[in-house]
Amino acid sequence: MKIKRLEISGFGRWSQEAFDLSDGLQVIFGQNESGKTTLRAFIVGVLFGFPTKKNGHNVYDPKDGSQYGGSLILETDEGDVKITRLNRTKTTLTITRLINQTEIIDPEKWLKQKLSPLTREAFDDIFNFNQEDLTRISQIKSVDFQKLLLNIGAVGSTGWLDVMAEFDKSADKLFAPRANKRPLNIAIKEYENATEELHQKSAELDDFMLAEQALTDLESEQHEQEEKILTASQQLQETQQLVQQYQLFESAKKIEIENVPSVDEKQVVQARRLQIEIDSLNDNILRHNEALKNIEVPHEVSDDNTDQMVLTKAHVAQRNLAVNTEKRTNLLKQKEQIEAQFEGDVPKGLTDSELQSLSSSNVYLLSTGALILILFVSIFIMHWPALWMVILSLIVTAGLFYKRQKKNQIRQMIQKAYSPLNIQNIKKIQPEVDQYEQQKMDIQSLNEQIEGQYDSLIQMIQPIALKLDIQILSDSLELTIAQLISVQQQESLSEQSKRSMYVQQQNQIVTEIQQQQEKLSEKLNEQKTIFKEYHVTDLHELQNTLDQYNKNEQLKQRYQDIMNQIDESTSQELLKYDDETQLLEQKEKQQKHLTILQKHAFELQSDIAHYKAQQEQRTSNDQFMMLQQDLANQKTELTQQFGEYLAKKMSVKWINQALQDASQNRFPKMQQLATDYFQKLTAGRYVNIQFDKNTLQVVRNDRQKFSVVELSTGTQEQLYVAFRLALSQVIKDIINMPILVDDGFVNFDLSRKQNVIALLTDIGRNQQVIYWTAAIHNEHFDKVIEL
User: What DSSP state is assigned to residue 297?
Assistant: First the structure.
């Protein structure tokens, strides 16, 4: 939460004034009585309510009669809002969201939620302080000062400390070890007198007291036995739970989870769909080819019609020849692109060992140095002559040098074969080199197919070309076939009209075959891309990979489901046992031990009943019963008074412990930050803050330790400031409020004042800090408002 603007209608000396505040460290400069403290009181008043005249507080009534109050514009997690609080006695509060100029329906509830868990007192304890607060700290006794520091993590601890002191004082009024007139001391004395009187007046008192003591001992022993039974029962119950969980734990341990790469099921579905389409396209092509073969020429056909049919087939064959020719052209281009990257012939692909030889390494130098060092240490320890060290070092170095030279020769041979590529490109081009040989074989196969198709096509059209006296253009068979068809059509117009339906059907089938083949090639490429991604060759392998992945995921989920049923502590406990037999043996031992304890408890119960029966007979005398009743009444009264005393003393202890616990929840983080801040504020003079139970010490840079009371007033204030600032940072996750500081560093020397300004500037990068001061001559500030 940040304050962006103050708009004052009337508050103290300020009337109809507005101030724009910046992020970070905002300095407000003004001389004494310029209204600095008034501005601070205005901010607190708008947030938490204006002060009243009770206890003599300054209420800051406007001097010129302006309407009391004003507004704050805040930046919150819900956007900018304008909080307006007017009038002191009948205060009205309105909160407006500036983004849409709408008013919040319940402003008090909304503001309380935004400021929660802060109250005005908590805000003053953490985010709001001035020199008066720091001066008051120096006047507190050392013990109280240490308690305040230790409990600063518990907001509102000062009030609880007062309650704790009141309880302690009230308890001391009830009882004191050496006092005679305290109520509890008097009751103890009366109880002792009544006991003595009972001893003097009852002849059976000795027997009664001995029996009473024996009864008390038995009851105490029975209580201890019950505690042992309870402990043994709990242990047995825990063991029974472990037995119940062990089989579940064992089943989880037997689950073998492999490191299987993930598979996108959508891509598997896509591959299946493509396979269906591929199968469908193959079936269509096969069906069209069968249909093309099954088209028969009418029985009574002329030579012209036969020639026309041949030319149609030749046209189809020429298209197939063109498709293969285009494939060969594409492969040749790919082959030429690979060849163009080398100065000579395309080399063969590298083996794994050859690829390893290309990796650069400093192993030679490191190995040589390490071996020489080992030899030197060995010779030094064993007192060998230095000549041995030199000879062995030369031998080791020569061996490593030979190995390195051999590796360099292999690398040079590879670089020469792959010239002009560098090592990185040699590794990168390996997939293309591996494909090169396959491309050559594919080109050879296409050449053979093209040659056969070409010869077959020439044989088909040559008789017709001779008959029609048309020269065959070997480099343009498509044009020759078109010319033959054209001439044939001109010579057999009448016959062609009869067979037009037949030709059209053939052409349609051929066109459909070509379209199906193009789609088939496209689908095969798509499917091949998916197979390549998962390193498989067919759909079956891809499905197996998916099944393996899904099975592994199911095992993971099963393992997680099992382990979720077993908490962490139970798992750690189960790891201590090798098998279930150990658990069952332990359970049986615990069961036997519990049975023995229960048997002994039953025997004690019988003895207690026997003693109580005897005691009832001894107390049949009326006078003895009366004395005993009086003693019991005094004991009850003494117990009640002692209980009241203990309640007050325990309340003191509980309050102190509660404050300690509340502080300790955040105290480790606060201590770390406070130590860092205190070190910065003292320019490194003090380097640590140490705690031992309820005591606090600071450590100077020469490791000398000091208690708080040994510090100067300024250093005490710096320690307190370090804790205040640290606490404001530690609770930022709960609420982030601006820090208000009103001329709080009067007792700081120049260097330490500069240190605290630097610290506030650093904190201001993540939290707004508003600093009122009457002196800025020796510091440099980026954001200053002069009053």
Answer: P
Decide the pairing of beta strands 25-29 and 769-773.
Answer: parallel
A 10 A CB-CB count for 108 gives 11
pLDDT for the residue numbered 145? 43
On the 0-12 / 13-18 / 19+ scale of CB atoms within 10 A, 244 is: exposed
Distance of alpha carbon 352 from alpha carbon 354, whole angstroms: 5
How many whole angstroms separate alpha carbon 440 and alpha carbon 449?
Answer: 14
- pLDDT tens figures, 337-364: 887 888 777 787 777 777 777 765 555 4
Query: What's the sign of the alpha-carbon dihedral 346, 351, 356, 357?
Result: negative
Contact indicator for 179, 667 with CB cutoff of 8 Å: no
Rounded CA-CA distance 401/236 in Å is: 71
pLDDT tens-digit readout, 163-198: 666 666 676 666 666 666 677 677 677 666 766 666
CB contact set of 590 (below 8 Å; sequence gap of 6+): 232, 235, 236, 239
41 touches 54 (CB < 8 A)? no
CA separation for the pair 110, 150 (Å, rounded): 33
pTM of the model: 0.41
Query: Hey, what are 624's tokens?
Result: 């003895």
> With the C-alpha atoms ordered 87, 90, 91, 92, is the resulting torsion angle positive or negative?
negative
Task: Check if the beta carbon of residue 686 is closer than 8 Å to that of residue 722.
Answer: no
Which residue type, as a one-letter code, is found at position 658?
A: A
Question: Residues 6 or more apart from 685 whose CB is under 8 A from it?
Answer: 700, 701
What does the pLDDT read at residue 150?
47
Note whether 153 and 662 are within 8 A (CB): yes
Q: How far is CA 445 from CA 322, 452, 455, in A?
A: 15, 11, 16
Are the beta carbons of 313 and 305 closer than 8 angstroms? Answer: no
Judging by beta carbons within 10 Å of its beta carbon (0-12, 13-18, 19+), is residue 222 exposed, middle or buried?
middle
Residue 325 identity (one-letter amino acid): T
Question: Would you call 389 helix, strand, or coil by DSSP?
Answer: helix
Angle between helices 205-254 and 539-564 (to 10 degrees): 180
Question: Could you give the angle at which helices 477-491 and 493-533 cross, rounded to 10 degrees?
Answer: 150
Are the C-beta atoms of 31 and 774 separated by less than 8 Å? yes
Mean pLDDT over each residue of the chain, to the nearest integer: 78
Cα separation, 157 vs 664, in Å, equals 13
DSSP string, 354-370: HHHHHS---HHHHHHHH
The whole-angstrom separation of Cα 455 and Cα 632 is 132
CA 55 to mean position of chain CA atoms: 51
Amino acid at 323: V
pLDDT digits (tens, 9 = 90+) for 491-509: 766 565 666 777 777 788 8
Peptide bond connecting 261 to the previous residue in cis, omega within 30 degrees of 0: no
Helix (H, G, I), strand (E, B) or coil at 9: strand
Which sign, positive or negative, has the C-alpha torsion 123, 127, 128, 134? positive
Residue 695 near residue 707 (C-beta atoms within 8 A)? yes
